[in-house]
Design goal:
By secondary structure, the chain is an alpha/beta fold. The protein has three domains: 78 residues, Winged helix-like DNA-binding domain superfamily/Winged helix DNA-binding domain (Arc Repressor Mutant, subunit A); 106 residues, D-Maltodextrin-Binding Protein, domain 2; 107 residues, Periplasmic binding protein-like II (D-Maltodextrin-Binding Protein, domain 2, 3-Layer(aba) Sandwich). Strands 3, 4, 5, 6, 7, 8, 9, 10, 11 and 12 form a ten-stranded mixed beta sheet that branches. A two-stranded antiparallel sheet has the order 1-2. It is elongated and about 75 Å long. It starts with a helix and ends with a strand. 32% of the residues are buried.
């Protein structure tokens, strides 16, 4: 079998769409279709059923998919183990993470790896969404929810605390905040109510219907900027908000503990570039666990 054809088949199987696979492989739609048809011709079996909703693997396709994944894993392992020096760490490691963790922690903390391993490319995708390791969207996924798929490798990264923050300028012009009921007179900065990508970020649930004013933003970065500009009050991670001098904790008795999890595919455990990045994330997070847990607080708390 032609490995190029198999690589196309794997990408189609994981994405479920020929067009999506073509974009990922940087090929045109016709080339992907042609290579997939060529592979089916070589094997004498139909591998995918093309439906209006996308490509669905046939029984033969499912069998080949499992074999092709093992072949891919072995090839990656051979490439990774050809040398033991730092120069042998090469290629792309893709990381999907929530935007807050990805931008305010991973981006600065993983930068030194690029200096140490010049042939390593880190492709960081910090977005408010869940990434699929099984479909090979990323090599490493940082999640807010522990996955239920027992086939995946899951490791706890760090616990982190979130509290209510507001800017000094906002607090100076608004009514005092003494109890949670006082929040009804304030603008609450939250995620979009119709795009709740993880239940762990729904801090107030249906209680928000009693708030007079809300400012909704799809990601944590936007919420953080809104609070810094004095728009309102938001639940923010301590490791993001506490280093900002102008932000203050309000209602300090209200806090939320959450956990970041790291998910990777079992086939990637022996790939050197992925294991190095994975270990670096765990080590850096543990070094900074006091900040994640709220041990370093903002300059002041408003009661």
């Amino acid at each position: 079998m032609n490995w190029d054809h198999l690589r196309v088949f794997l990408t189609v199987a994981r994405s479920g769409q020929i067009l999506s696979a073509a974009r990922h492989l940087k090929l045109d739609h016709a080339t992907v279709s042609r290579r997939l048809a060529a592979l089916e011709g070589e094997l004498g079996a139909r591998l995918v059923d093309r439906t209006p909703a996308g490509c669905v693997l046939t029984q033969a396709g499912q069998q080949l998919f499992q074999t092709a994944e093992r072949m891919e894993s072995e090839m990656l392992h051979v490439q990774s183990s050809l040398g033991d020096s730092d120069d042998a760490v090469s290629g792309v490691t893709r990381i999907g993470a929530p935007d807050g963790f990805g931008i305010y922690f991973l981006a600065p903390q993983l930068a030194p790896l690029v200096d140490r391993y010049p042939a390593l490319t880190i492709r960081l995708v910090p977005l408010p969404r869940n990434f699929s390791v099984s479909k090979r969207e990323v090599d490493i996924a940082i999640t807010l929810d522990r996955p239920q798929d027992g086939r995946l490798i899951c490791q706890k990264v760090v616990d982190y605390r979130l509290r209510l923050y507001a800017s000094s300028a906002y607090l100076a012009r608004k009514p005092m905040l003494r109890t949670p009921d006082d929040l009804q007179a304030h603008t609450l900065v939250t995620t979009l109510s119709d795009i709740l990508w993880s239940p762990t970020i729904d801090f107030f649930g249906s209680q928000t219907i009693f708030w007079r004013s809300r400012f909704e933003c799809a990601n944590l970065v936007g919420q953080f900027e809104a609070v810094k500009c004095g728009i309102g009050v938001a639940v923010l991670p301590d490791f993001v908000a506490s280093p900002v001098p102008d932000l203050q904790i309000v209602l300090p008795e209200m806090s939320f503990m959450r956990t970041y999890w790291m998910v990777s595919h079992p086939d990637s455990q022996r790939i050197k570039r992925i294991s190095i990045v994975r270990s670096a994330i765990i080590e850096k997070a543990r070094q900074m666990r006091r900040l994640f847990a709220g041990g370093t607080t903002a300059r002041g708390s408003v009661k």
